[in-house]
Amino acid sequence: MSKPLYRQIAEAFEQKIRSGELDVDDVLPTEQSLQDMYNVSRVTVRKAIEQLENQGLVQRIKGSGTYVKYNPAKYDSFQLKGFDENITAQGRTAGTKVIHFQLEPAPSAIAEHLKIEAGTMIFSIIRIRTIDDEPEILEQSYMPLSLFPDLSVEVMQTSKYHYIEKQKGYQISHSRQDLKPVLATDVIAKHLNIKTNHPVIRQRSTSELINGEIFEYSVQYLRGFQYRFEYIARRGLE
Predict the structure, then answer these.
(1) Above pLDDT 90, what percent of the chain?
(2) Of 68, 84, 104, which closes a domain?
(3) Which of 70, 90, 100, 225 sits at 20 to 30 Å (Cα–Cα) from 18?
(4) Which residues, given as ranges, of the chain have pLDDT below 50?
(5) Cα(first)–Cα(last) distance of the chain, in Å?
């Protein structure tokens, strides 16, 4: 049995909003435009908008129009927080799936990032990070065996920062990060449930302990559907 037309319309706009095609404060087409677009009645259009309102995705402003109000999870680049900590603080549900966990000699390029000798044993880990059960980040991490001899799949399925600070007793200092837009490869697309060549954000991070030791080098690929970076630029005054 096919879905009612109002639900089909609502779900089409839900996808546009969650994918970022429609951004916060963007205005939806008028009711008349939607009637013409989908060849439906005004009642059907209003029921579709009502469903979006009930989901907290749009807001109708009398005399102005219907606006997108969906707010994705935000990442404050000036506060170093773990993924789980950041997402749960915003009332969302964070999840992690480890799809690769292996002990191996560090290739030269990875060793350079970790400031260790090539061939030193490291953990190579690939995880999928989810928000409200939707894949959002594909993460490849490299961590030295010398710092984390008891690292396990179970640990990496939970909060990495909690393990490092609470279980290992290390003090994290900072993380150096760079961002670049890239196109999703077949592998990235498969794990993030997007199409090949869809634009994603690549984030590379090198993280240090308070004593200057590098404890992780990671590369993350973000869909950007539910996760955004937030920057605050301040002008220094003498």
Answers:
(1) 53
(2) 68
(3) 100
(4) 76-80
(5) 68
